[in-house]
Specification:
globular, 9 helices, Rossmann fold, seven-stranded parallel beta sheet, 14% strand
C-alpha cells in the first residue's frame, strides 16, 4: 500500500507535532508547517520522508508555495490538517488587545482557509482525501476572558461546516475536530483546573482515527463531548450565572 501523504500546519509543537509523530510512525510522507524554524527542525529530525516549511499561515503566498512544493515532491495529499492556532486571554475593554484579537482571528480562522485553499482543486480532481480542521470545545459557548479564542473557534467550526457541504459528493471529506484540554504549551499557562485533559499523543491518536473514518464532527474526549452537548442546551441566564466568575486565561501572551 502506498504511504499516506499528510500535510500539517502548527507542526512545531502541541497537537500538530504529536500528529506529525503519529503519521511518521505510519510511514507517511509529511509536509510540516510551523512558525518557529528551529522547533520545526527538531520535530522533523527523526523523520525520513518529510518536507519542512517554516512559515506563518497568515502568509497566503508562502502557503501556496509550500503546497505547490509538497505536491511536486509527493503528489496530492491524502490528508491536510489545519492545526495551527494560538490561545491568548483577551478583554475587549483594553485597546492593546485589539491587535491580539486580530492575530487570533487571522491565525485560527484565516490560517485554516490559507491551509486548505491551495489543495482543494487537486484533491477534487483526485476525488479523495480529508481536510481536517482543529476547532475547540471553547467554540461551543463564549468563555469569559477568552473572547478572541472562543470567537475564532466558533468561526472555524462554522467555516468547516460550510466547506463540508460545499465539497459533498466530491470525494473530499471535511472533518471538524473539537478537542477539550490537551497537555501543550498553550494550556501550560492556564491558572485553573482542566477536566478530562489529554496527553498530546493520545489526542493525536484519537484525531487520526477520526480522520481515518472520515468523521464529520468529533469532540475529544468523549467526556468533553457530553459537556459540550450540555453547554449547548443551557439557557443563557443559567450559563451566565455559572461562568461569570470563571477564571480567565492570562492576557497578552507573546504571539
Amino acid at each position: 500500500m502506498k504511504p499516506l501523504r499528510v500535510f500539517i500546519t502548527g507542526a512545531s509543537s502541541g497537537l500538530g507535532a504529536a500528529l506529525a509523530y503519529y503519521y511518521a510512525a505510519q510511514g507517511a510522507s509529511l509536509g510540516l508547517v510551523g512558525r518557529r524554524a528551529e522547533a520545526l527542525h527538531q520535530v522533523s529530525q527523526p523523520f525520513g520522508d518529510c518536507a519542512c516549511y517554516p512559515l506563518d499561515v497568515r502568509d497566503s503566498a508562502a502557503m501556496q508555495a509550500a503546497a505547490a512544493d509538497f505536491m511536486q515532491r509527493f503528489g496530492t495529499p491524502d490528508i491536510v490538517i489545519a492545526a495551527a492556532g494560538i490561545s491568548v486571554g483577551t478583554l475587549t475593554e483594553f485597546a492593546d488587545d485589539l491587535t491580539v484579537f486580530k492575530a487570533v482571528m487571522d491565525i485560527n480562522v484565516l490560517g485554516m482557509v490559507t491551509t486548505f485553499q491551495p489543495f482543494i482543486v487537486a484533491m477534487r480532481k483526485q476525488g479523495s482525501g480529508v481536510l481536517a480542521g482543529i476547532g475547540s470545545v471553547a467554540g461551543i459557548r463564549g468563555l469569559p476572558g477568552g473572547s478572541a479564542y472562543s470567537a475564532s473557534k466558533a468561526a472555524a467550526i462554522t467555516y468547516l461546516e460550510s466547506l463540508r457541504v460545499e465539497l459533498k459528493g466530491s470525494g473530499v471529506a471535511v472533518t471538524t475536530i473539537n478537542p477539550g484540554y490537551i497537555v501543550t504549551p498553550m494550556t501550560a499557562v492556564n491558572p485553573y483546573p482542566m477536566p478530562f485533559i489529554l496527553r498530546a499523543e493520545v489526542a493525536a491518536s484519537k484525531t487520526a482515527h477520526a480522520i481515518a473514518r472520515r468523521g464529520r464532527y468529533v469532540t475529544l474526549p468523549w467526556q468533553m463531548a457530553l459537556v459540550a452537548k450540555l453547554l449547548r442546551l443551557l439557557p443563557c441566564v443559567l450559563y451566565d450565572r455559572l461562568f461569570q466568575h470563571a477564571p480567565h486565561k492570562p492576557r497578552n501572551l507573546p504571539l
